[in-house]
Amino acid sequence: MSVENIDVTLRDEIRAIVADIVEIDVNRIGWNSHFWNELEADSLQGIEILSALERKFSITLDQAALSLMQDVQSTYEVVTTAMQAVEPSSRLTIAEPGLPR
């Protein structure tokens, strides 16, 4: 995913969440700043980031997503994928037998 094709507001919200939890200045967090190595986040902070993203964006993320969330770019991709999965247009509607669809 190229930086030119992103939702800047979403990116900045992710950066703000990470900055708040890791307790660093948001300006230190770039598109590819590695959460664990560069920003020194620990596993508990990773779970806090995941939980904060779920609350902020009304999505559900499996804890396995933590292994994919290495930086803002990969976290952005995880969040946008989860957001697309809950959009009404992507939901399958199943009507009960005898009821109109």
In words, what does this structure look like?
- The chain is an all-alpha fold and 101 residues long.
- The chain has a single domain, classed as ACP-like (Non-ribosomal Peptide Synthetase Peptidyl Carrier Protein, Chain A).
- 45% of the residues lie in helices and 0% in strands.
- The chain has 3 helices and no strands.
- It has helices at 8-22, 43-57, 72-86.
- 20% of the residues are buried.
- The model is unreliable at 90-97 (pLDDT under 50).
- How would you sum up the global shape? globular
- What's the name of the CATH homologous superfamily? ACP-like
Percent of residues in beta strands? under 5%
The CATH architecture can be named as Orthogonal Bundle
CATH topology: Non-ribosomal Peptide Synthetase Peptidyl Carrier Protein, Chain A
**Tally of alpha and pi helices:** 3
CATH class: Mainly Alpha
Question: What is the number of independent domains?
Answer: 1
From N to C, what is the helix and strand string?
HHH
Q: Mind summarizing the main beta sheet? A: none
The overall average pLDDT, rounded, is 87
> Termini, distance in Å?
37 Å
Low-confidence stretches: 90-97
Helical proportion? 40-55%
Supply the helix-strand structural class: mainly alpha
Determine Rg (CA atoms, Å). Answer: 16 Å
| Count of individual beta strands | 0
What are the key terms here?
about 100 residues; Non-ribosomal Peptide Synthetase Peptidyl Carrier Protein, Chain A; mainly alpha
Short description:
With 101 residues, the chain is mostly helical. The chain is 45% helix and 0% strand. It starts with 7 loop residues before the first helix and ends in a 15-residue tail after the last helix.
